[in-house]
Write a structure and sequence with these properties.
The protein is mostly helical and 267 residues long. The chain is 60% helix and 9% strand. It contains 10 helices and 6 strands; from the N terminus they run H-H-H-H-H-H-E-H-E-E-E-E-H-E-H-H. A 3-stranded mixed beta sheet has the order 1-5-4. Strands 2-6-3 form a 3-stranded antiparallel beta sheet, sandwiched between helices. Helix 1 (3-29) packs antiparallel against helix 2 and helix 2 runs parallel beside helix 4.
Length: 267
């Protein structure tokens, strides 16, 4: 790899880390992120990628990998947003990442595996993001809920839910005092009131794309809370996805895909 191409990858690496770090801080504090970090990330990515392709010694191979990485990243971003898997900021970050670091800049042994010639970097970043979030996010919630249950708190006393829903709820949310749930942007109510059955029921995957719809839903739940004199209700805390994306990106740069790393050590 030429010196100029390597410098371009270093610039991409630094820019992406900086933008994702800023996005993570804003995501934690405000629960919303402006488009500025993603515009900057994409702009720097496009410029450095063009220069990289001009000076790279493997124009055809690197060009194909970068093109495939971009297409998959954009498609993935749209799909993840419109299916509700990711929020708007997370999806935009994925699309901005798709024009950055499709080629691994550091000659570590793990990132030199043959499989990385065929698997786009954006897919590896997404896989790392997903795995890190699955491991880090649910376990503390589960231990917290089990701790409360061990202390004798009746978690589902006022809620109608089957066994599967209870388990899923315990790894994705917690029972919160209603006095602490109002006006919080980082929580989503996980229960709805069935007026016909006159009981509260668990409702999973209720995050909506439009802010107006989410506010309308919250208002309806809070009205039913007042009518039924509910003191506690199950909620989900929206995970700060940008932080996990940053972790997934850094892991990808140094060791690639976590699954491939485990496989290479095991076999």
């Amino acid at each position: 790899m030429s010196e100029v191409s390597l410098i371009m990858l270093y610039i991409q690496f630094s820019t992406v880390i900086g933008c994702l770090l800023v996005g993570s801080i804003l995501d934690l504090i405000k629960r919303e992120v402006s488009d500025i970090p993603w515009i900057l990330m994409a702009a720097v990515g496009i410029i450095t990628t063009i220069v990289f392709l001009i000076y790279t010694e493997n124009k055809r191979g690197d060009g194909i990998l970068i093109g495939v990485n971009f297409v998959i990243g954009v498609v993935m971003g749209f799909l993840l947003f419109y299916t509700g898997v990711m929020g708007g900021a997370d999806a935009k970050a994925i699309m901005a990442l798709s024009v950055n670091t499709a080629v691994y800049p550091f000659p570590f042994e793990l990132t030199q595996l043959d499989v990385y010639q065929y698997i786009p970097g954006i897919f590896n970043i997404f896989f790392n993001w997903l795995l890190v979030m699955i491991v880090i996010y649910p376990l503390p919630l589960l231990f917290f809920n089990l701790y409360k249950r061990a202390k004798g708190e009746k978690l589902f006393e006022e809620t109608n839910a089957n066994f599967a829903s209870k388990i899923l709820m315990m790894i994705s949310g917690y029972l919160a005092p209603v006095s602490k749930t109002k006006d919080r942007l980082d929580i989503v109510y996980s229960e709805v009131y069935d007026k016909e059955e006159e009981q509260w029921e668990i409702k999973h995957f209720i995050q909506v794309a439009e802010i107006e719809e989410e506010e309308k839903y919250k208002k309806e739940v809070e009205e039913n809370i007042e009518k039924t004199k509910r003191e506690k209700i199950w909620v989900k805390v929206l995970p700060p996805g940008i932080i996990f994306l940053l972790i997934g990106y850094i892991i990808n740069i140094f060791i690639g895909n976590i699954f491939f790393m485990i496989y290479s050590f095991a076999f």
